[in-house]
Every structure is written in C-alpha cells, then in structure tokens.
C-alpha cells in the first residue's frame, strides 16, 4: 500500500519522509489495514506535496485523516469534482487542505495532495482499508502489501490529469530517506499452523496456548524492492461460514448502512469431471515488452520472465487436447501472431508453434495490450469451440479501465485467465479482466512458478461448465435478503465463493436462524450446499462487512471516472458516499480549520525521489513504442539481421529482429534455449497426440544409449513409440514428481494414448 510512497513535487530538494508504519489485523480471511506516513517540512517556505502509491484492487478504503502538529483533521468523502473545488479554494485562500483520490485511469493507484504545509510542521497521514484475502491452491490465505509502482505504458491518448503523469527523480534503493515498519496480528478460531513471508520477519509469537492468535513484525531495513507478502496457513480453511453485521439505522435511515449485512463464504465440493472438455479455442497473449528480459524477482537464481514465459507456453501447448483450436500472440508496442487465425491443434501446427516459442524474445518495446485484444475479439467465433483467453503481462498501462471495458464488452463470448508477472504488476488490470469474464487471476512473484499457475488455470478452463448457479435465502417471515454481489455464473473446483447481501425487515428474536442455499448443475447432475446461521447481528465499529459488500458492488458497476455509464454512475456515487468507501467518482477532502491565520509566504513544491528497481529503465518513456535497444537485447542465438513487418493500430512498419543464422534440429535448439532443463527438453519432444518417438534426442535426456533402449523393449515387435512413451512417463514420475502440477495434463494425454496403442 503506502510502501512505495512517492512524495512528489517539482523541485530538486526532497521533502524528507521520515517513516512509514503499517498495522495489519487479519481475522479469518479479512484484512484490516492502517497505514501512516510521517514527514516534516524542514524548508523555510510553505509546501504543497503529492504522493502516489499502489493499492490492491480489492482494497476498500474507508478512512483518511491527517494529524498536523498534534491536531487531528478527519477527511470527508465527497463527489470528486466537489472535493477538488474545495481543495483548490482552500489552497488559493492559504488554508491547509488534504485530498485523497483514486487515479482516474486505474483503480490500484492512489494520489494524495497535502497543501500549504507550514515550515517546521510535522504531518502524519493515515488511511485505513479492508479487503478479502484470496485463497491459494495449497490452502494458504495470501496478503500482499503493494510496495512497487512501476512506470506505466502510456500508449496513445492524453493522460495529463493522471497522477502517474507526474515526473520524479529516480534514485538507488540505498538512497531512500525513509524507513518502513509493519506489525501484523492474525487470528482464527480454527488455529494458526504457520505464517510465511517473502521478506524477513520476526519469529511468530502466539498470543495464547490454543494458537488462535499470533503476531509477527517485519524485520528492520526493508527496502522498497518487492511487495510484502504474507502466506497464512490455518488448521482448517474450507468451512462454510455466514457472518451478520449490525447496521447503522439512526445515522443512515435511507442509505446503504441502515440494514444489517451478511457475508456468506462457500467452498463448493465440485467433483472431478470424469472426462475433461476437448473442445475450445485457446488463445495465449504473451507480453514481449523489454522488461520481460528481467528476472521474476531479485531473489538469487530467479528465472528471467521471458524464459519462464517460454517454458510456460511449451507446457500449455503440449497440454492442449487434440481437436481444439489455438493461437499465440506476442505484444509490446506492436503485436505478432503465430498464425493469421486460430488453427486446429495437430502435430504440424504444434511443431510450428513450438519453433516460434523457442525463438521468442522480449523485443517488442512497450506494453500496448489494447490493440491485440481488439484484434483477437474481431476474429469470428469458431462454432462449438468457446474462446478461452490467457493473458500474461508484467507491465501496466495507464488507462486500465479502457482495457477492462474492452474485455467486458466481449464477456459473453469468452473467459479470460490473467497472470501478473513480477513485482508491481497492476492488480487492477490483472484482476479486472478476469473478473468481468468469469475467469481467474494469478500473480507470479518471488519463488512462484508461472508454469504451475498457468497449468492450473488451463485445467480449470478444461473443466466442464458448471451451470444453473443460484443462491437462495430461507429467512423468517418479515425478513428478506437483497443480494449485492454480482450474479455468479462460473464455479471452479477448489474455488471459494463469497457473496454479500443486505437483510431488510424485522429482525427476529436472538435464537432465530436463517439458511442460505447454493445450487448448481454439472454435466446434468444437480448439487446443493446449505449453510444455517444465527440471525443475531454483531456490532463492528469499522462496519467491515458493509464496506466489503460495497466494494463488491462498486467493482461491478464502477468502470472509471470517464467510462462508467450514466445509469451506473448515480448508483456508484450513492453507495460510495453512503458507506464511506472511495470510488472513481469520489475523493476524501479535509480542510484544517484549526489555523487562526492563513499560511504565510509563497507556496513551493519539492521533488522526493522514488527508488530505481531492476527493469524500470526498460519501461521508461524513451523505450516505449520502440524495439528494445540493441544494447539491452540478449538473444541467446547466433543471429543475423533481418526485418519483420509489425502491425500497430492498423498500420505496418519494418523493424529489425534477430533470427537464427542456420537451421537447427529440435534437440540442438532446445538445449541451446533451455540449457540443462531436462524436464522442458523432454516435454518439448512430446507429440501432439501425447506420445514420444524413440530416438537419440529422447535417449540423451533419459541418460541411455538408443541401442540400450531398443534392446530393452519388453514385447517383441512392439511399437517403439509405445515403449518411448512409457519410459518418458516413468522419467516424469521419477525425476519431476515435485512439479506434477505442471505436467499433469500432458501426462494424462500420454496415458490415454498408451491405453489405446500400447496393447
């Protein structure tokens, strides 16, 4: 959150940010966060400062306040234009004022203005938010405190009113003048097994013998080179729950906060489908901007993003079912497609795609994702093969809402599975394009493997559709539930489902209960999950459930300051102000009325630098919209120069590219590109139907001579491919068992082939 705070102004002298402190409280799967910045004006003139910081897209920001020289100033949430008008009027009249707003073009970037800060004044700015924590595949709850705000690709259009347009000096991490601290308290009735982090933390301190509460602290010396991530493991996480929270009828007689709210958490027990889907059009959209040449993280031996992307594409291509259609797009400032249109998956098309993947480089410049998306959506649908879109990107675009709206307009014809690569990937972009289509989103940081997460998404995409999803309420007479969450149309195996509702009417006696029922069908069979709960609402001073419910509603209706439809803008504004959760249409504003006299002296601005992270140079404006400079290119292949025709916004131009100077056989090329990674080499040799050929390439990976393998065939005159495929699967189970999640789908395809052909 405030971790990668950029305090900005227009001069060269910094406004020293003394410290940033964060208090985190996690209860079950909800996080409450309070973040405070402490800084001081040591200049002899009054200052106007700005800071820009990243925020998770799911965060419901509900409070903002400033403490100036010991006096607290509480901000109010107002319509955005009105808030700006109040702020500008206060500044022109030499009054102190504070403004906090969501960026107009992206929900995961916030801006704060501090106006007329007196010489010698000390200011503490605090904002508070709540958010749901996502559930990982291994049962961990994942909390991320965004610390990295990368440069964002501007593309075409004007973004002068975006806070991302502010220019700041960039300095080495060791030159940052402020410190960062964080204390986290975790509690769960189910007990806490362990807590893990990508950053150094103090040993876990349990606050009771039953291990239902614990505390950890971030070690001193944290640098703003990575997001702060916590993985929390409870003893039990798959228990359905319903929480009912008391409303605020006296202060909100007609608004959102009047009635009690309910949060329902389901863990549908969706059975494994006996036969996966074998149809579909699978389109893979891969970021090939210059920053993809960077490591996924700063940890030792972290894989380059482009290399992880290539391995991931190979695994995906090998795991596709015969009979489907596919295509691969690369994008940067321009875009390229492997095929003019999606092609039927066969041995020939797979081999052609595989050759292109192995030669793929991070050589396409900036991050212009909108144009290739529009091209993909213009392609005619293939009857009987619904579109499944996989988007991989490490970059960000300035106009995030425009991209999300483009995906949303095409939501009825496809699902989008999105992947944010590396530190600082835009949570608004990655989560937004998946949310509006019923897909899923993943983030690859630290030691995460892109390969595993991508194959998990493909497995979900190959699941038969869960139909007729409905949530119904059985409540006492006189009480009704108004659903706030969007209608659920897609469910995946292992996925958690959270729904919100307002309970209106007469609350029954304390001992009364209600029931909520989730129903769905899978391959013609009906399933049902019921949860019974107590109807006695519990008070919460922070109104956590109300604000999470409001955030859920706003994510559905709020499509940005400019692009939210007029019919939705009124609802967004009302809900936002009623519940105090910021939106694209609102902003927090506070004016210091404690000052007895206007601020004296001319108002001055100062720049406070932000840290230089690896790869930031590759995303700077001078490299956007052009090919990666030759000095930064690191193609591993012997090359000669040629030109390629690239397409950008309907026009074509010539661009230098590298190509192999001589043809290479598959094994030579695979070894050159992937080195000693025998797993990827083995998978690269698999045929589209799931089988392997028995040849020198396979023998070398298995560590045997071809003659020894042929001599060991257990059945006389047996098909050598059957023997080769059995050996390849034995190798996978013996040498790569810990990576089963990455090769499970292609292994199933191979086993199916064996049962048919091996006799």
UniProtKB/TrEMBL annotation:
Domain of life assignment: Eukaryota
Residue span, VWFA domain: 281-462
Alphabetical list of InterPro entries matching this protein: VIT, VWF_A, vWFA_dom_sf
Pfam families: VIT (PF08487), VWA_3 (PF13768)
Domain VIT: 1-131
PANTHER family xrefs: VON WILLEBRAND FACTOR A DOMAIN-CONTAINING PROTEIN 5A
Name the record gives this protein: von Willebrand factor A domain-containing protein 5A
Origin species: Ailuropoda melanoleuca (Giant panda)
């Amino acid at each position: 959150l405030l971790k990668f705070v950029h305090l900005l102004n227009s001069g060269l002298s910094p406004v020293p940010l003394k410290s940033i402190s964060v208090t985190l409280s996690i209860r079950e799967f909800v996080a409450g966060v309070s973040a405070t910045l402490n800084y001081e004006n040591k200049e002899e003139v009054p200052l106007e400062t700005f800071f820009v910081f990243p925020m998770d897209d799911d965060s419901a920001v509900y409070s903002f306040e400033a403490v100036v020289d010991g006096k607290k100033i509480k901000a109010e949430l107002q319509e955005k234009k009105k808030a700006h008008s109040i702020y500008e009027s206060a500044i022109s009249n030499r009054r102190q004022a504070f403004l906090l707003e969501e960026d107009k073009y992206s929900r995961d970037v916030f801006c704060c203005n501090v106006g007329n800060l007196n010489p010698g004044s000390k200011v503490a700015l605090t904002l508070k938010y709540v958010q749901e924590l996502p559930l990982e595949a291994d049962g961990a709850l994942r909390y991320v405190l965004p610390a990295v705000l990368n440069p964002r690709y501007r593309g075409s259009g004007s973004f002068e009113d975006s806070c991302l347009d502010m220019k700041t000096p960039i300095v080495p991490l060791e030159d940052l003048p402020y410190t960062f601290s964080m204390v986290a308290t975790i509690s769960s009735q189910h007990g806490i097994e362990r807590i893990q982090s990508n950053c150094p933390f103090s040993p876990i301190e349990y606050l009771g013998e039953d291990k239902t509460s614990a505390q950890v602290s971030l070690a001193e010396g944290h640098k703003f080179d990575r997001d702060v991530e916590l993985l929390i493991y409870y003893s039990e996480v798959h228990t359905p729950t319903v929480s009912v929270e008391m409303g605020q009828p006296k202060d909100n007689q007609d608004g959102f906060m009047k009635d009690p709210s309910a949060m329902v958490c389901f863990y549908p027990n969706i059975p494994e489908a006996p036969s996966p889907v074998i149809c579909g059009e699978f389109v893979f959209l891969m970021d090939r901007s210059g920053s993809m040449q960077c490591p996924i993280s700063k940890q030792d031996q972290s894989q380059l993003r482009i290399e992880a992307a290539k391995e991931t594409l190979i695994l995906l291509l090998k795991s596709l079912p015969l009979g489907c259609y596919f295509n691969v797009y690369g994008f940067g400032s321009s875009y390229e497609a492997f095929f003019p249109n999606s092609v039927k998956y066969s041995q020939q098309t797979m081999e052609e795609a595989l050759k292109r993947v192995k030669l793929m480089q991070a050589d396409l410049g900036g991050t212009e994702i909108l144009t290739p998306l529009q091209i993909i959506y213009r392609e005619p649908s293939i009857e009987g093969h619904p579109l499944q879109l996989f988007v991989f990107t490490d970059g960000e675009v300035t106009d995030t809402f425009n991209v999300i709206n483009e995906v949303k307009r095409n939501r009825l014809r496809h699902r989008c599975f999105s992947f944010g690569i590396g530190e600082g990937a835009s949570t608004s972009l990655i989560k937004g394009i998946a949310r509006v289509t019923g897909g899923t989103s993943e983030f690859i940081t630290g030691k995460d493997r892109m390969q595993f997460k991508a194959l998990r998404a493909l497995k979900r995409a190959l699941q038969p559709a869960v139909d007729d999803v409905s949530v119904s309420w059985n409540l006492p007479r006189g009480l009704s539930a108004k659903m706030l969450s969007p209608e659920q149309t897609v469910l995946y195996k292992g996925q958690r489902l959270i729904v919100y509702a307002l309970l209106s009417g007469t609350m029954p006696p304390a001992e009364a209960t209600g029931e909520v029922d989730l129903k769905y069908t899978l391959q013609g069979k009906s399933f049902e999950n019921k949860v019974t709960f107590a109807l006695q609402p519990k008070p919460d001073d922070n109104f956590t459930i109300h604000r999470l419910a409001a955030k859920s509603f706003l994510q559905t209706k709020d499509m940005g300051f400019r692009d939210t439809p007029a019919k939705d803008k009124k609802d967004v504004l009302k809900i936002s102000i009623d519940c105090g959760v910021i939106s694209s249409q609102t902003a927090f504003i506070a004016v210091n009325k404690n000052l007895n006299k206007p601020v004296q002296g001319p108002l001055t601005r100062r720049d406070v630098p932000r840290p230089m992270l690896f790869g930031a140079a590759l995303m700077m404006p001078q490299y956007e919209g052009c090919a990666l400079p030759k000095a930064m290119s690191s193609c591993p292949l012997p090359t000669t120069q040629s030109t390629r025709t690239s397409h950008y916004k309907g026009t074509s131009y010539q661009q230098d590219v590298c190509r192999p100077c001589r043809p290479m056989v598959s094994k030579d090329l695979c070894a050159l590109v992937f080195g000693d990674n025998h797993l990827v080499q083995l998978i690269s040799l698999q045929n589209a139907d799931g089988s392997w050929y028995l040849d020198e390439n396979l023998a070398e990976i298995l560590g045997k001579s071809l003659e020894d393998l042929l001599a060991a065939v257990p059945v006389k005159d047996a098909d050598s491919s059957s023997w080769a495929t059995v050996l390849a699967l034995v190798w996978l189970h013996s040498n790569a068992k810990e990576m089963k999640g990455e090769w499970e789908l292609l292994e199933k395809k191979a086993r199916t082939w064996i049962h048919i052909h091996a006799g």
